[in-house]
Predict the 3D structure of the following.
Amino acid sequence: MDKQLNIHYQEFADENALPLQDRELLRQAETMASKAYAPYSRFKVGAAVRLANGVVVCGSNQENAAYPSGLCAERVAVFSAAANYPDQAIEALAITTQAEKASGDPVAPCGACRQSILEYEHKFQQPIRVILRGKNGTILVLDSVRSLLPFQFSAEDMGL
Ligand SMILES: [Zn+2]
Protein backbone atom coordinates (compact mmCIF):
# COMPACT_ATOMS: atom_id res chain seq x y z
CA MET A 1 0.00 0.00 0.00
CA ASP A 2 1.39 3.36 -0.99
CA LYS A 3 1.04 6.21 1.41
CA GLN A 4 2.00 9.83 1.20
CA LEU A 5 2.91 12.54 3.65
CA ASN A 6 2.14 16.18 3.05
CA ILE A 7 4.10 18.77 4.95
CA HIS A 8 2.56 22.18 5.39
CA TYR A 9 4.76 25.24 5.72
CA GLN A 10 4.69 28.88 4.74
CA GLU A 11 7.26 30.83 2.77
CA PHE A 12 7.73 34.58 2.96
CA ALA A 13 10.04 36.80 0.95
CA ASP A 14 9.71 39.61 3.46
CA GLU A 15 9.64 39.53 7.25
CA ASN A 16 6.97 42.23 7.35
CA ALA A 17 4.40 39.53 6.61
CA LEU A 18 5.19 37.96 9.98
CA PRO A 19 3.73 38.86 13.39
CA LEU A 20 5.84 41.31 15.38
CA GLN A 21 6.93 38.71 17.93
CA ASP A 22 8.26 36.45 15.16
CA ARG A 23 10.22 39.33 13.67
CA GLU A 24 11.65 40.12 17.07
CA LEU A 25 12.65 36.48 17.57
CA LEU A 26 14.37 36.47 14.18
CA ARG A 27 16.27 39.61 15.10
CA GLN A 28 17.52 38.01 18.28
CA ALA A 29 18.56 34.87 16.40
CA GLU A 30 20.38 37.08 13.91
CA THR A 31 22.32 38.77 16.69
CA MET A 32 23.23 35.39 18.09
CA ALA A 33 24.48 34.15 14.72
CA SER A 34 26.97 37.00 14.67
CA LYS A 35 28.30 35.76 18.02
CA ALA A 36 28.62 32.11 17.03
CA TYR A 37 31.86 30.33 17.75
CA ALA A 38 32.45 28.63 14.42
CA PRO A 39 36.19 28.95 13.66
CA TYR A 40 36.30 25.62 11.81
CA SER A 41 33.22 25.59 9.59
CA ARG A 42 32.65 29.38 9.51
CA PHE A 43 28.99 28.37 9.34
CA LYS A 44 27.46 30.67 11.92
CA VAL A 45 24.00 29.87 13.23
CA GLY A 46 21.84 31.73 15.72
CA ALA A 47 18.74 30.48 17.50
CA ALA A 48 16.19 32.18 19.73
CA VAL A 49 13.51 30.40 21.73
CA ARG A 50 10.34 32.14 22.96
CA LEU A 51 8.80 30.58 26.05
CA ALA A 52 5.20 30.64 27.24
CA ASN A 53 6.08 33.30 29.84
CA GLY A 54 7.45 35.55 27.10
CA VAL A 55 11.10 35.08 28.02
CA VAL A 56 13.46 34.63 25.06
CA VAL A 57 16.47 32.34 25.43
CA CYS A 58 19.16 32.45 22.77
CA GLY A 59 21.97 30.27 21.51
CA SER A 60 24.63 30.08 18.81
CA ASN A 61 26.64 27.18 17.52
CA GLN A 62 29.71 26.32 19.58
CA GLU A 63 32.36 24.39 17.73
CA ASN A 64 35.29 22.48 19.14
CA ALA A 65 38.64 21.28 17.80
CA ALA A 66 37.37 17.81 18.69
CA TYR A 67 34.41 18.16 16.32
CA PRO A 68 31.71 16.06 18.01
CA SER A 69 32.20 18.01 21.23
CA GLY A 70 30.60 21.10 19.74
CA LEU A 71 26.89 21.80 19.69
CA CYS A 72 24.40 23.31 17.25
CA ALA A 73 22.80 26.68 17.98
CA GLU A 74 19.34 25.13 18.21
CA ARG A 75 20.31 22.74 20.99
CA VAL A 76 22.33 25.38 22.83
CA ALA A 77 19.18 27.54 22.92
CA VAL A 78 16.62 24.84 23.59
CA PHE A 79 18.64 23.06 26.28
CA SER A 80 19.44 26.36 27.95
CA ALA A 81 15.75 27.30 27.93
CA ALA A 82 14.75 23.91 29.32
CA ALA A 83 17.43 24.04 32.00
CA ASN A 84 16.62 27.56 33.17
CA TYR A 85 12.83 27.47 32.70
CA PRO A 86 11.86 23.79 33.05
CA ASP A 87 8.17 24.59 33.56
CA GLN A 88 7.76 26.88 30.55
CA ALA A 89 6.60 25.45 27.25
CA ILE A 90 8.51 26.50 24.15
CA GLU A 91 6.22 28.45 21.84
CA ALA A 92 8.55 29.30 19.00
CA LEU A 93 12.08 28.87 17.76
CA ALA A 94 13.78 31.14 15.22
CA ILE A 95 16.91 29.99 13.40
CA THR A 96 19.14 32.08 11.16
CA THR A 97 22.48 31.55 9.46
CA GLN A 98 25.35 33.72 8.36
CA ALA A 99 27.09 31.18 6.19
CA GLU A 100 29.83 32.71 4.07
CA LYS A 101 29.59 30.39 1.11
CA ALA A 102 26.19 28.71 1.30
CA SER A 103 23.33 29.45 -1.10
CA GLY A 104 21.64 31.80 1.30
CA ASP A 105 18.46 29.76 1.53
CA PRO A 106 17.04 29.03 5.00
CA VAL A 107 18.77 26.13 6.71
CA ALA A 108 16.71 23.58 8.61
CA PRO A 109 17.93 21.99 11.86
CA CYS A 110 20.00 18.81 11.66
CA GLY A 111 18.40 15.51 12.56
CA ALA A 112 19.72 15.46 16.11
CA CYS A 113 18.33 18.95 16.73
CA ARG A 114 14.95 18.01 15.30
CA GLN A 115 14.71 15.09 17.69
CA SER A 116 15.91 17.24 20.60
CA ILE A 117 13.42 20.04 19.93
CA LEU A 118 10.61 17.55 19.42
CA GLU A 119 11.18 16.23 22.94
CA TYR A 120 9.77 19.49 24.28
CA GLU A 121 6.70 19.31 22.09
CA HIS A 122 6.05 15.93 23.66
CA LYS A 123 6.82 17.18 27.16
CA PHE A 124 4.40 20.10 26.99
CA GLN A 125 1.94 18.62 24.49
CA GLN A 126 2.19 21.84 22.54
CA PRO A 127 3.56 22.42 19.03
CA ILE A 128 6.64 24.60 18.59
CA ARG A 129 6.50 27.14 15.76
CA VAL A 130 9.74 27.02 13.78
CA ILE A 131 10.87 30.11 11.87
CA LEU A 132 13.84 29.78 9.51
CA ARG A 133 15.50 32.66 7.73
CA GLY A 134 18.34 32.39 5.25
CA LYS A 135 20.92 34.98 4.37
CA ASN A 136 18.93 35.79 1.22
CA GLY A 137 15.99 36.86 3.39
CA THR A 138 13.67 33.99 2.54
CA ILE A 139 11.64 32.88 5.56
CA LEU A 140 10.04 29.49 6.12
CA VAL A 141 7.54 28.94 8.93
CA LEU A 142 6.43 25.54 10.18
CA ASP A 143 3.71 25.11 12.79
CA SER A 144 5.38 22.15 14.47
CA VAL A 145 8.72 20.36 14.66
CA ARG A 146 6.73 17.28 13.65
CA SER A 147 6.69 18.70 10.13
CA LEU A 148 10.48 18.46 10.08
CA LEU A 149 10.53 14.97 11.54
CA PRO A 150 7.41 13.14 10.47
CA PHE A 151 8.68 9.70 11.45
CA GLN A 152 9.83 10.51 14.93
CA PHE A 153 11.19 8.44 17.74
CA SER A 154 9.32 8.91 20.99
CA ALA A 155 9.09 7.46 24.47
CA GLU A 156 5.93 5.70 23.31
CA ASP A 157 8.08 3.61 20.97
CA MET A 158 9.85 2.27 24.06
CA GLY A 159 6.55 1.53 25.76
CA LEU A 160 7.06 4.40 28.21
ZN1 LIG B 1 21.75 20.51 14.92
In short: The first strand starts at residue 10 and ends at 12. DSSP finds three helices and six strands in the chain. The pocket of zinc ion is lined by residues 72, 74, 109-110, 112-113 (CB under 6 Å). The mean pLDDT is 95.
